[in-house]
Sequence to fold (264 residues):
Amino acid sequence: MPIVQLAVALRDMEIGEEVEVEATDAAFLADVRAWSRLTGNDLEELDGGDVCRVRIRKVDPDAEQDEDE
Amino acid sequence: MSGPTTSDTPGTLTSSMCSCGTGARTEPAPCSTTHEGTKQSTFIVFSKEFDKQLMAFTLANSAAASGMSVTMFFTFWGITALRRPNPNRGANGKSLIDRVFGWMLPRSSKGLPLSNLQFAGLGPKLVRWRMRRLGVSSLEEQIEMAQALGVHMVLCDTSVELMGLRRSDFRDGLEIGGATACIGAAANSEVAMVI
Fold:
């Protein structure tokens, strides 16, 4: 499960640190978008092709999160 | 809802690669601890079927990975997935009828049937084989994953007794609870479902 691996990887990261993820799972892009919305971590989509590539930046979970309207 | 979600800020990201700039703040790992504002989800796992258990654990793990505090409440047939694969032999103070129940029910997550296409035991083997080929985490891996992610797995006390089982028949790291504990968790949850 790529999302679980991503969440585990984030545990050991400092706030502001970034990680790049490559996944072949077709559902990964939709999943990682939802995950980013739920956790508040920043998501940058790099490539949505067969191998999906995204970059995640860890944010401070205690900082106030910008809510969607 | 479906409108623009996050606006990218192109160009600025490359310069901040791997820099944190947040000073020397050392805080406890934010994953396992429950914050005040942490979202919660509750999954009531009633069914013993392999496919339903797999879905329950996949959802629970996704929720836990998304920072939610997750409770899985196992009741009725659902508890059989958490039986210890090879419990200590012997009567263990059980009556004959208790032991008959024990024989009839799945021995562990490895003995679960499918809800469809069971084919006298061939179906689950086929599905597991296909999962391995596709690189999908097995049910056993998902159970371990849930425990590693701090998912609260609660066994329904009444169901354990009803099935003639003992606490020692189940894997370690489980909690014991009743219907009210389950409702208590569900009442605080934004996601609650019965599987």
User: Anything to note?
Assistant: The interface with chain A takes residues 1, 5-6, 8, 13, 16-22, 25, 27, 29-31, 35, 39, 58, 61-62, 64-68, 137, 142, 145, 148-149 of chain B (CB under 8 Å). Helices of chain B lie at 50-65, 96-104, 122-134, 139-148, 157-162, 179-187. The radius of gyration of chain B is 21 Å. The domain at 38-194 of chain B is CATH 3.40.1260.10 (Hypothetical Protein Ychn; Chain: A,).
